[in-house]
Structures are given as structure tokens and as C-alpha cells.
Fold this sequence. Notes:
Helix content: over 70%
Largest sheet: none
Structural class: mainly alpha
Strand content: under 5%
Distance between the termini: 16 Å
Order of helices and strands: HHHHHHHH
Mean pLDDT: 77
Radius of gyration: 18 Å
Shape: globular
Amino acid sequence: MPELSNLLAFSLIALGMVLTPGPNMIYVISRSISQGRKAGLISLGGVGIGFLFYMLCAAFGITGLLMAVPYAYDALRLAGAAYLAYLAWQAVRPGGRSPFQIKDLPQDSNRQLFFMGMITNLFNPKVAMIYLSLLPQFISVDNGTSVLGQSLVLGSVQIGISLMVNATIAMAAGSIAFFLTQRPSWAMMQRWLMGTVLFGFAVRMAVESKR
């Protein structure tokens, strides 16, 4: 098991990242609004398979990398910090757009919805960065605990958080879209809050030494 402090910190970052709009959220919201809640949840099922694929690949790859390559930890740490800073800028940059401001999509079958959800996730750079650069920062290599086991636990936590948040958004997408249309200041406040949180984590990660 990861250390409790690492588990809690990683959970907060996972929550902040899933609340920052990206391809997965935009696709699930688009399907929920244009084709109904069931379509959004089916699409999310495909997204979940993409998460599982990345988690398993990263868990086994990170295990070997951290043990074999000097300075691999620092390289991944700086790359993760840079990407968090990039996401923070995307959240607060002028002209930023809400994921609820989307266009209607054509009707797709359940199989197409699931497949496109999976493909959207597999080609999502945010997901790759979570597992390849962020996850290693919360793995302790000096306490004798299995690196592979910690990777699988942290990855499972991230998947659980992402699926729960996106499922909630999929179920309430229409209501949220109407609420934000009537109150644009709320959308701006959410963007700045997420941007500030992600930038804070980026700074913390960039200056943190290896555990």
C-alpha cells in the first residue's frame, strides 16, 4: 500500500485533473446532452477500459524504470510538474471554453459509443501524463513496499475517482449546462479554482526532492 499522505495527495490531484475539462469529459458530456444519459454512461465505460490499459502498462513499466535508470524519477517529476502547469494555464487562459458549450453529435449505436469512448481516452495526453509522470511521484521506493503494488493501488484510485466524477457529470450534464448558461460567473470561478490548485501542485512537485 502507498503511504497515506501519498494516497491522499494523489487523490486530490486526480480529482483536480478530472474536473479540468479534457477530451474524455467533453466527449461524455456531448453524448449525454445530444443522445441521453445512457449514451453518456456507455461512452464512459469505454473510457474506463482505456484507463485500465494505461494503468497496467504504466504500473509494469514504472516498476522497471525506477529501479533501472538513474535520475528517471527526477525526469518524470519535472515533466509532470510542467504538464500540471500547462493544465493550469488552459483552465484560466483568456477565451477558455466550458465543456458544456458543445454541438449536437450524430446518433451512434451502443457499440460505437463504447468504442469511441475507449479511443478518446487512449489518445488523451492527459491520461498518459497521469500515469507516466504524475503517478511515480507518489510511490515510495525506500520503505520496502512493492512499487508494482503501489502503482496498481494508486492507478485504481485514479480510475475510481475519474469514473465517479464523470458518471455524475454525465447524469447531470443537461442541468449543469443550463445552470452555467444562466450563471457564467460560476464557470469562470470553477476554472480559476482548478487552475490555482493545479498550479500549486505543479510548484510543489517541481521543488520536491526524491522520497
